[in-house]
Specification:
Length: 269
């Protein structure tokens, strides 16, 4: 497992870094749209209880199309259009559910899943594109990504070797309090080093607050996806990333952390 995780990272990370650094904001948005398409498919697989064809049904298709349109709108910082597309998902989902309700009362679960999917998967990724489009956006994208992903590495290894006390056994038996604290320590260490190297004007105290807030949000995101999978009786959201599971397994923490980072960038720093 550990070898697969590192081999996947060694192959994928340099390619992604090069693409993000050399590409424009539009290229970045296309990359995020691809990640979103993979993640939303896995999300619908989970909430449908493992039905691989559920993604192709009308209500999920509508949500996916609108979500991708939201990412396109975020490239132009069109917040009003993002809001309207989100609300359109609810309206169209409700509309398409009505003819089916007579024969399938579970269609209401599909509508709820579609609305949750737009908020859970697409909206945070829109925030990542919006962050990329802000001044020094590229630096900030790498800031939040490194803090979250290296914090996840810290939590994984501290939890593996030092974990004794269960963090949320009903949701994720493998996660420990020690791992969570190790992850937060890694979040802070990465944020401080990154601040010294690339964002020297940021106050140390606020950077530490930023790291803790982003780290906690990321851990909540990780546990939330675990909760979804446990309810559905599914171990991994997919197998696209050897050693890491699916795309949603890889970005679950980021989905909760990015809106926090975007808020800090807008209102604090």
């Amino acid at each position: 497992m550990h070898l697969k995780r590192w081999l996947t990272a060694i192959v994928a990370v340099p390619a992604l870094v090069a693409l993000i650094c050399k590409g424009s904001s539009a290229v970045f948005a296309c990359l995020i749209a691809l990640i979103a398409a993979l993640a939303i498919r896995e999300y619908f697989y989970i909430v449908s209880g493992g039905d691989k064809s559920f993604f192709l049904k009308p209500v999920p298709v509508i949500g996916s199309i609108l979500g991708l349109a939201m990412i396109a709108a975020s490239l132009y910082t069109a917040l009003d259009i993002i809001f309207l597309l989100m609300f359109s998902g609810l309206i169209l989902g409700a509309l398409f559910s009505m003819p089916a309700y007579r024969h399938d009362v579970k269609i209401m679960e599909a509508v709820a899943g579609q609305v949750q999917g737009i908020v859970y998967v697409f909206l945070p990724l829109c925030a990542l594109v919006l962050l990329r489009c802000r001044p020094e956006g590229l630096i900030w994208v790498f800031f939040v990504v490194l803090v979250v992903f290296l914090g996840d590495v810290g939590a994984f290894y501290v939890g593996t070797y030092l974990g004794r006390h269960k963090l949320a056994p009903a949701i994720s038996p493998g996660k420990s309090v020690e791992g969570a604290l190790g992850g937060l320590a890694a979040n802070i260490a990465v944020a401080v080093v990154y601040k010294i190297l690339l964002l020297p004007d940021l106050p140390f105290a606020l950077v530490i607050v930023f790291a803790v807030a982003v780290g906690i949000a990321g851990q909540i995101g990780d546990l939330f996806e675990s909760q979804l999978k446990r309810k559905a009786g599914i171990k991994d959201s997919g197998t696209i990333l050897p050693g890491h599971g699916g795309m949603l397994d890889r970005i679950d923490a980021l989905l909760f952390a990015v809106p926090v980072a975007y808020g800090f960038n807008l209102f604090v720093f």
